[in-house]
Amino acid sequence: MKEEEFLKKLKAHWEKNDIPNISFTNAKFLRDLIKIKKAKKILEIGTANGFSTINFAYEIKNLSYSSITTIEFSPKSYADALINFKEAWVESLINPILWNALDVIPKLKEKYDFVFIDGMKKRSKDFLLLVRNKTKKWGIIIIDDVIKFKKIEHKEKMLPLYNYVEENKISHNIIPIDVDDWIMMIIKD
User: Fold this and answer.
1) Is 0.85 surpassed by the pTM of this model?
2) Distance of alpha carbon 165 from its chain centroid, rounded?
3) Between 24-37 and 3-16, two packed helices, what is the crossing angle to 10 degrees?
4) By the number of CB atoms within 10 A of the CB, which of 65, 96, 101, 119 ranks highest?
C-alpha cells in the first residue's frame, strides 16, 4: 500500500473512532520543517495511534542514522501505534516507549533536531522544561494545540506554558496551521 493511501486509511479510522491526531495540513507543515531542517533525530511526546510518527518516519526514511523516539502513556494507544508502525513499514525507524514522558525524558541520552509535543495539554510547560536540554542548538520544538486549550474553559491547561514562555522571554511563534488549532514553534538558541 502506498504511503498516502495508508495515511488516508489511518485518518479515516481515527475519525471514526474519535482518536486525537494532527490534521493532514499540520502533518504536511511538520514534514516540511523536518525536511528543511534535515532532522535526523526526532522526539515525539504523545504517540496516539502513530499518525504523526508515521508521517515523520516517511520524511526521514532515506536519511542515514535517522530515528524517532516517541513516548506514549496509554497502553491501548501504544499497542495500536505498534501495529500501525509495522503496517506502514517504518518500525525500524521508531523507538516507541510506553511510559510517562515526565519520567522518561530526563533519562534520554540523545539530543534531538526536532521535538513535537502533543501529550497531555496541562503538562505542556513541564514537557517543554524537560525537552529544552534534550534539543540541539537551532533545533525546532513544536507544541500542538496551543490556542483551543488557552480558551477560558480550558485556560488551566495552557496558562502555565504561556506564563513560562513569557516570564523567561523565550522567543516563539504562534502559527495558524489549520482551523482546528495553532501550534507554538520555538527555535532553541
Assistant:
1) yes
2) 19
3) 140
4) 101
Q: Is the pLDDT of residue 94 over 60?
A: yes
**CATH classification at residue 31:** 3.40.50.150
Q: What residues make up the domain containing 37?
A: 3-187
d(CA 165, CA 79): 34
Domain count of the fold of the chain: 1
Strand partners, 95: 69
Which residues, other chains included, contact 19 with Cβ-Cβ below 8 Å and sequence gap of 6+?
13, 48, 49, 77, 80
Overall residue count recorded for the chain in this entry? 189
CA-to-CA distance for 135 and 157, rounded, in angstroms? Answer: 23
Query: Given the C-alpha cell 483551543, which residue does it identify?
Result: 148
Give the cell for residue 65. Answer: 542514522
What are 124-140's pLDDT values in tens digits?
999 999 999 999 999 99
In angstroms, rounded to a whole number, what is the distance separating the alpha carbons of residues 101 and 136? 19
What residue type is 139 in one-letter code?
G
At 114, list the grid cell.
526536532
The span from the CA of 171 to the CA of 55, in Å, is 27
Q: What is the rounded distance in angstroms from the CA atom of residue 10 to the CA atom of residue 79?
A: 15
